[in-house]
Each structure stands twice: as structure tokens, then as C-alpha cells.
Design brief:
single chain; 500 residues; alpha/beta; Alkaline Phosphatase, subunit A; 11-stranded mixed sheet; 4-stranded antiparallel sheet; 13 helices; 19 strands; binds calcium ion
Length: 500
Amino acid sequence: MRKSRFALLLAAAMLAFGVSLPAVSPPTAPAKPPARKGPPNIILILADDLGYGELGCYGQTKIETPNLDRLAAEGVRFTQFYAGSTVCAPSRSVLMTGQHVGHTRVRGNAGANNPEAQMLKDEDVTVAEVLKKAGYATGLIGKWGLGLPGDEGVPNKQGFDYFFGYLSQHHAHNHYPDYLWRNDQKVSLPNGVVPVGDFGGGYATNRVVYAGDLLAQEARDFVARHRERPFFLFWSMITPHANNERTKALGMGAEVPDLGQYADRPWTDVHKAHAAMITRLDEDVGRLMTLLRQLDLDRQTIVFFSSDNGPHRESGNDPEFFRASGPLRGIKRDLTDGGIRVPFIARWPGKIPIGIESEHVGYFGDFMATAADLSGGRAPRKIDSLSLLPALLGKEGRQRRHPYLYWEFHERGSSQAVLLDGEWKGIRPGHRDAPVQLFNLKKDLAEQKDVAAAHPGVVAKIERLLRAGRTENPHWPLKDATATPGKTGGAAPKTPPSRP
Ligand SMILES: [Ca+2]
């Protein structure tokens, strides 16, 4: 842990421009006692396809994110934190179950080809169920992707008292949908949509209501409604994910109501829109933080922010233009760190020290044990989850560490990866018998030099973990070299897979 250089720079800039630092007291001297005793409210804000390098506090220079930068400056910013997967559904399955992607049920985006492969079952225990049992009001606002209407994977059957948003990922591509779900009821919206596929996907020709704005309002309403009791809000944003159906039809899938401060930049339209999506997301976070202060919930609420996987190029956006992966190599669908290392920020005034950085190597699965720890709830057994509370509180010496992290990915064949001690990254690309590539993240952050030949002992250890680290799942077998490259998982789709 160290004082973040970014936090110091931000403080200096604020002083230079006469801006006062936020009214947050150091942890040793709380300004006033919390209004309510007991465990904190937990807010988890998840961006969709936001890269490691797309926030100012992670080095972004073109896109402005002052509210998230402030969130980091007032709390802790993790520098080596990983998503559950390199695409949406499995990453969220890991986040919800606390099991890594070699153990969790949903291991890929299967979608219309095999909805059951992308559905949580009754026997899966989610973090929402743990928090509900611990006495929390639980709400999901936004994208789900782990169950479809009427099946056992829907949020209301997976621990969420309240749900407003999208069930299907394809539906969630569309930022101007003609309906959303409120629990099990369809809520009509006045957008005019050209439908694509069977799950609500499409693109709008008459744009009236921007879903991101609506979800932000719903998130604020949920907080205001539950101010008297502990709550868990999972605000699962749909930005800056592209509308892939609009990209295919019209050539540009970055949807946003206006281009804001980027309108006059000498950039392409898609780059302007991409930046505006992220800045709008950031403004929505700022509004929620203002509400927490207004409701006097600030000090009894821990706010987490992250992204479900690396950045994309699916709107026509060029991730290189924004250096969206920062110093890392790869984007969404890669198992190099650019595909899976994500921003992770947490703020809890009076508890989390101000403006610290943590190099602790954690991942989405840790949210389960952390939430259980914060709430006094009981996490299920058989999970791959360590509470992050010591690292969050700046007590890194007490933080337990994973000996290794594991990923697998079922598009373009089957790929696997193991990260050993936060340092050695082994990637088996393409099929289950492929030779392991080895990178040393401490010396080669961009994973450019395969050093497998020089470290046979490390490779052998990683090969053992690639075999032992997973359980078999009938929907998500590891393919051999004869499998058709480019096909998704989800048990032999009959039609070419769409790409959520
Ligand atoms: Ca995603």
C-alpha cells in the first residue's frame, strides 16, 4: 500500500484551482458518528467493457472521469485486480457465486444457442442471497445476463428483492430499448426499435429514453427507498458496451444522447461517442455520491466500482486510440491482462484510508467473501473467495492471498490461463493440448516475451493447475485441436454465435 501519486496530484490540482478537498475526515477522527449502527450498505457499480486504462485515475488522458477519479482519491485503488472472465456472462457468474470460472456454472456467453448454458440454477448461491439472509434489502439495477424470463436464473430467484433492467445480454446491447423488466413485468418505453433476434436486441430508429439515464435514476431511487435499513445495490451498467446490432446495421454502435465536451474534438464520431458514454457514466456515479451525502448515508456505505472485462472494439471504436488497456496487452476476449485486469476502486469514509493504492492481487470471486465479511453474513462453502477487507482497510499485512488465479475461455477454441503468485502468467491458447506460454508480469507487464523454455519448473506447475483447477461442465468442455476455431462454447451451437 502506498499513497497514490494520483491522489496527491489531484489534491495539488484542487488546491491550485481553489477547490476544497471533499469533507472526509481521516480514519482516526470521524467527524460524526454514523446515523445507524450495524453493517454498512454495499453498493457495487459495474461498468460493461470498460478497460483498465479508461479512467483518469488509471492513466486515461483523453476521456474525462472526474467523479471516479475522486472516488479513487477518497478511497483505495487496486492496481492488479481481475475480472471473472474476459466476456460478460461468465465474469458476472464469478462475481455472483464467488467461484472462479473453472468452477462457476456459467463459463461463457452462450446466449440464444443454448440459454441453459448461461443460466444460474437454484442450487447456485449468489452474493445477493447471502446478503438477503443477512438482513439486507437487495436490488439489481441494469444488466443481468444469467437467466431469462421464467427460468430459475432470473434475479428475483437469485436473491434480489428488486430488479429493474435487462435479463438478456442481447437486449442490453440496445441503449434505447422499447421495454425493460421490473421484476417479472415488462415496462414499455417510448423508443422505436428495429428488433434483431428473439431476446429483445435491436437498435432504435426513434430515440426517446436513454436506458443509462433511466438506470441511474432507478439506482438513486433504490438508495432513497432503503435509507433506513442495510441495502445491497448492484448497479450493473450497460456502458460503454457497444450496441453490436446497431454496428452491424448502421456501422456505429456507440450510443449516447449527446457528445458533451467531445463534440468539437478532431476525432471520429465513434470516438467522440465512446468518450461521451464513459463521461456520462462518470457523471451518473457523481450523482449517486451526491445523493449518499444528502441522505447522510455517506459514512455507512461502502461503494465499489469495477468493470466486467477489458475494453472492446465492437462499436467501431479503436481501443488503441484511447490506450484503453493502459500498459497491458489485449482487449475483451483475450486472456492477456488487457482482457481481464480491470479498474477496482472502493470508498468507505472513516474506514478505508483516503487515497491509497493496493497492489493486492484479487479478483471478482473475492466479492462474495468480502460482502459476507462486511455484512456478518455467511458465504457458502466450496468457493474460491477471500475477503478483501484487510486490503480495503489498508492492513495489507493481514490480507490473505490466492496462491493462484484461474481463467478459461470458450470462444476461438478453448483457452486457459493461470496467474501464479501475481507474477507468473501461463496461457494455454486455442485448445486443451496447446503448449503453455509463460510471461513474467513483474518484468514484462505487456506479456510480450514468452519465457516458457527458460522456466520448465514453473510451466510444469502451471500445467498441473490448468488440469486440477477446474471441474468438468457438460456445457463448457475444453476443446481439442480438432474443434472449429471461432465457435463459441455452450455445447455445439447450431447457428453461428452472436457475440454479446
Ligand atoms: Ca462486458
